[in-house]
Specification:
Arc Repressor Mutant, subunit A; globular; Four Helix Bundle (Hemerythrin (Met), subunit A); disordered N terminus; mainly alpha; single chain; 3 strands
């Protein structure tokens, strides 16, 4: 072998080694990037979990209107550290469920005027949404709503969950996401007060019967009747909520 041949081979060997090192470094970088990419997902998951737990505690009155709360104080309830809890609290503030109070936070009081306006808003947007649903709902979704309604009523928490799903899905069946989002937002604003409304078995039975009547009109293709029934249901819920918020029935709750 000539000295030239040996030089060529040495350069080739060095190149192969360098390529291997580059490939190894690239693989390591890729693995590191993948690990880092998972960090935001994990953080987002913790924030979502904290939000779900805190929202449930507020809506179910485990955290009562007017209660003072803090990021640190809610860590155990939320099952998350301070940063995800802070993010969850900001989301709850946007929904009107928490409120800043100086440098701290309070669970938003139940405001009778605000609830009355939310109920008016719900009646308007849900009436429009159900008209669209009459002509657009498919058979599978209709069957799913029947199954949902047939399972009512249960305990207050169960009925509220089923009722929220019924109204949200019926609105979504109309195919207009703006109306569907508006209905969902109104229901969220009203849910704490509705928990007070459905505490009795009688009120739960009445609500379930109204749901069945609405669904029957939708299935029959009667848009005018479906809208009339959903508006009447919203007004009845509004009246029951107002009665549930009477001063003699809300002792210990911060209601304005």
């Amino acid at each position: 072998m000539t000295s030239v041949d040996r030089g060529v081979r040495e350069r080739d060997a060095a190149g192969d080694a360098g390529s291997g090192a580059v490939r190894s470094t690239a693989a390591g970088s890729s693995a590191a990037s993948g690990a880092l990419a998972g960090v935001p997902d994990a953080a987002s998951g913790q924030s979502d979990l904290a939000y779900a737990r805190l929202r449930s505690a507020v809506l179910g009155l485990e955290l009562r209107p007017g209660d003072r709360v803090s990021e640190r104080g809610l860590e155990a309830l939320a099952g998350a550290s301070r940063t995800p809890v802070r993010a969850a609290m900001v989301r709850l503030e946007a929904q009107g469920l928490l409120r800043r109070d100086g440098r701290g936070w309070i669970v938003a009081p139940l405001d009778r005027d605000e609830l009355d306006q939310a109920a008016e808003f719900r009646e308007a947007v849900e009436g429009a949404a159900v008209r669209l649903a009459v002509g657009r709902i498919d058979l599978d979704e209709l069957a799913a709503l029947h199954a949902l309604v047939d399972g009512e009523p249960g305990e207050p928490d169960e009925l509220l969950g089923a009722s929220r799903s019924f109204h949200s899905r019926l609105a979504a069946a109309g195919g207009n996401r703006f109306l569907a989002d508006a209905v969902a937002a109104a229901l969220a604003r009203l849910e704490r007060a509705r928990w007070l409304e459905v505490r009795t078995a009688e009120s739960r039975e009445r609500s379930a019967a109204e749901h069945r009547a609405i669904l029957a009109a939708v299935q029959a293709g009667e848009a005018d009747e479906a809208e009339r029934l959903v508006r009447a249901h919203a007004r009845a819920a509004r009246e029951r909520t107002a009665a549930a918020l009477a001063p003699d029935r809300t002792r210990g709750l911060h209601v304005t």
